[in-house]
Write a structure and sequence with these properties.
There is one protein chain. By secondary structure, the chain is mainly alpha-helical. The protein has one domain. Helices cover about 85% and strands about 0% of the residues. The protein has 5 helices and no strands. Helix 1 runs antiparallel to helix 5.
C-alpha cells in the first residue's frame, strides 16, 4: 500500500472513531437540547462526502507537511488551526444566517473541530513515524 493511502486510511479511521464517540455519546444530548427542531434524519451520502474531503485536507495540508518537517508540534498546531478554520466556516455561517442557531453550539463545535483535527493529526504523525512510513 502506498504512502498516501496509508495516511488517508489511518487518518480516516482515527477521525471517524473519535468523531463517532463525540456524536453518539458525548454531544448527542447537547445537540438534541439546543438544535432539536433543526435536526433531521442523518443523510449518509453527504456525511461520507464531507469525511472524504476533510480527510484529504488533513493529510494534504497537515500530516504530510508535518512528516516532511519531522515535527509533531507542527502537526498538532496545523491540525488544530485547520480544524478551527473548517469548523468556523460551518458554525459561524450558521450563526450569521440561521434564526435560532445557538452560540453555545458554535463554541463547542469550534473547540471540538480544533481538538479532533489536532489530535488525529498528532496520532497519525506518531503512527507514521513509529511504522516508518
Amino acid at each position: 500500500m502506498g504512502y498516501y493511502s496509508k495516511l488517508f486510511i489511518t487518518t480516516g479511521i482515527l477521525f471517524l472513531l473519535i468523531d463517532l464517540v463525540w456524536l453518539l455519546v458525548i454531544s448527542k444530548q447537547i445537540y438534541q437540547n439546543y438544535l432539536g427542531d433543526l435536526l433531521g434524519t442523518v443523510k449518509i451520502v453527504p456525511a461520507a462526502i464531507f469525511y472524504l474531503i476533510y480527510i484529504v485536507g488533513i493529510v494534504f495540508f497537515v500530516i504530510h507537511p508535518a512528516l516532511d518537517k519531522g515535527s509533531l508540534a507542527y502537526g498538532i498546531f496545523a491540525g488544530g488551526l485547520l480544524g478551527l478554520l473548517c469548523y468556523s466556516t460551518y458554525d459561524l455561517t450558521n450563526l450569521a444566517t440561521l434564526k435560532g442557531w445557538p452560540v453555545f453550539v458554535t463554541v463547542i463545535d469550534l473547540i471540538w473541530g480544533t481538538f479532533i483535527t489536532a489530535t488525529t493529526s498528532g496520532l497519525v504523525f506518531i503512527l507514521a513515524k513509529y511504522l516508518k512510513w
